[in-house]
Amino acid sequence: MTHFISIKKAMEKGSGIVHLRGWCYRSRGSNALRFIVLRDATEIIQCVVEKEHVSEESWNDALKIDIEASFELSGEIVEDKRAPTGFEVKVKEIKLIGESIGWPIQKDQSTELLADLKHLWLRSRYMTSILKIRSTVFGAIDEYFRKEGFYEYQSPILQATQAEGGSTLFSVNYFGKPVFLAQTWQLYAEPAIFSMEKIYTIAPSFRAEKSKTSRHLTEYWHAEMEVAWATFKDIQDYGEACIKHVLKKVLEQNQNELKILGRDVKILYDVLDKPFIRMTYTDALKELKEKCNINIEWGKDLRTIEEDELSKLHNQFLIVSNYPKIVKAFYMKEDDDNPDVVHGCDFIAPECYGEIIGGSERESDLEKIKKRLEDMGEDPKNYEFYLDTRKYGSVPHGGFGMGVERLISWICKLENIKDAIPFPRTMLRTTP
User: Fold this and answer.
1) Burial class of residue 104 (count of CB atoms within 10 Å of its CB; 0-12, 13-18, 19+)
2) Alpha-carbon distance values, 325 to 54, 183, 359 (Å)
């Protein structure tokens, strides 16, 4: 049997006979000579087919190979600085596997057309690079939490109550009664910290936000953690360490993909090497007023425009903490010295990429939680399973949720978060 290897391994070999397979990235030539660039999951390489040096069957197949046709070949790999990736294969035998006639994607096509053809656009070097980085990010998140002694834990996708705001809920008809797609694992994670203490998950979350911006998805992947005995500072420290671990892994494993995307890696190294900047919400308002001439009334949540202005002032992640209680979730702990604010924080990415992480220390006072629910128009009876966690051996604890696609968008410096996920779901798109 023919032993096929990847293009990357062939390039590492550097010389001799190799057997490769993949898809046509591009092709050109004459009636006597064909230049076919082969693409596989690892790299691209130029392949030269000379009519006089291959069989008639191979030559006829070579003539049929157009963009995205699949094929196999055998040949001699040699170093050639003029070739796109520094190596070339002098083909001895080539076999067409799957024809590709009339490939619909051309240069300079609109983003909407590319979105309609996302099932094919995934093959582009642009999308392949993003998806490889995405894979590294998911693996690094998992690695980080496991090395810190966390257990992986799953919560239900179908939930009976809201956790982050009723206006962003997707309702599902569940045997004649409404339930909701999970906005977060929050309410179902907290009960588990009383058994396993340190838990995490990477799972889809759903937000019915009527937003058409470049930063929002209705279905996204959520890396969440919850830990017993944690202080508010602990939660912030975990978030910073997690992001830096992910960034370190991407810089170790994905230099080629970052280069293809044109990402300035110096910015990524600078973020990795310096501590995140920590400030309170009140300090952030002061900075916006003094340096940006933006006057925000205390108690108003920071919008995208304010987060972006703060981001422009710093070349580092910002951890903004101690938000007004009125703009945050009911489970966030009130500050002991100022009950108008909570121990909640947002991690704002550099370069105007917005909030990446939202976290908090959790409220331990049962009556305060009930009062917050009532103020939101919620019936505490619907949250009895959650309230029970405060009745029986409650402890200080906290956690955070990280939007994985937002982190990927910043790492890759994408113009739109829809490119950070294979098949994005938004207000206007449910296909392909």
Assistant:
1) exposed
2) 74, 20, 14
Residue 427 lies in a domain: no
303 burial via Cβ count (<10 Å: 0-12, 13-18, 19+): exposed
Domain count, the chain: 2
> For position 56, which CATH number holds?
2.40.50.140
Contact (Cβ atoms closer than 8 angstroms) between residue 160 and residue 105: no
Q: Count Cα atoms within 13 angstroms, Cβ side, for 21.
A: 11
Predicted TM-score (pTM) of the model is 0.95
Residue 393 has pLDDT above 90, yes or no: yes
State whether residue 98 is helix, strand or coil: strand
Q: Record the tokens describing residue 414, joined without a space.
A: 């994408």
Q: Mark whether 301 and 371 lie in a shared domain.
A: yes
pLDDT digits (tens, 9 = 90+) for 211-234: 888 889 999 999 999 999 999 999
What digits encode the pLDDT tens for the residues 365-385? 999 999 999 988 889 999 999
Residue numbers of the domain that contains 93: 7-98
